[in-house]
């Protein structure tokens, strides 16, 4: 699928738009979702340009999942999450709204998920949660 380098996450990766980051290395970025479906909703993205999971090189997918696991552990520790929904929407038909592949980590139950990407979260509260997750990541 053709990659649009003006998509929101590409702009976040280039530092053109702000994000509340919890983890970054040379291949992956993890940051808080701006319209969380639950407290602690975090997104993990590979830095390589790919629209959907199917466009992502297997090596990049494998590395990204390692970081997804690490961030999930930190969310569990930091926020006392009892369970985490891992969601990955590939394609607009599946409901994908930002065309850069990403993994949602949502500390919630599938039965309690809120509406997808519709309501802005309290950014101060989200920043505080990010600090907790960052501390837990540093302790891993
Ligand atoms: P998708 O629908 O593509 O699976 O998920 C995109 C996610 O990105 C949604 O959960 C939405 O709330 C989030 N999102 C959209 N725009 C922004 C933004 O500018 N910053 C951040 N941090 N998240 C965003």
UniProtKB/TrEMBL annotation:
Residues 8-115 form the HIT domain. Keywords: Hydrolase. GO terms for molecular function: hydrolase activity. The keyword Isomerase does not apply. This is HIT family hydrolase. A motif (Histidine triad motif) lies at residues 100-104. InterPro entries: HINT (IPR039384), Histidine_triad_HIT (IPR001310), HIT-like (IPR011146), HIT-like_sf (IPR036265). It comes from Acinetobacter celticus. GO terms for biological process: nucleotide metabolic process. It comes from the Bacteria. The active site is at 102 (tele-amp-histidine intermediate).
């Amino acid at each position: 699928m053709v990659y649009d380098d003006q998509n929101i996450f590409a702009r976040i990766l280039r530092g053109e738009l702000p994000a509340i980051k919890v983890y970054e290395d040379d291949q992956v970025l993890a940051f808080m979702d701006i319209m969380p479906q639950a407290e602690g909703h975090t997104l993990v993205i590979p830095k390589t340009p790919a629209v959907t999971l199917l466009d992502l090189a297997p090596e990049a997918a494998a590395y990204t999942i390692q970081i997804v696991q690490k961030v999930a552990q930190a969310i569990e520790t930091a926020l006392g999450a009892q369970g985490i929904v891992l969601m990955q929407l590939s394609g607009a038909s599946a409901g994908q709204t930002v065309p850069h592949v990403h993994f949602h980590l949502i500390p919630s139950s599938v039965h309690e998920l809120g509406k997808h990407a519709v309501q802005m979260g309290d950014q101060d509260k989200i920043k505080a949660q990010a600090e907790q997750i960052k501390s837990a990541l540093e302790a891993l």
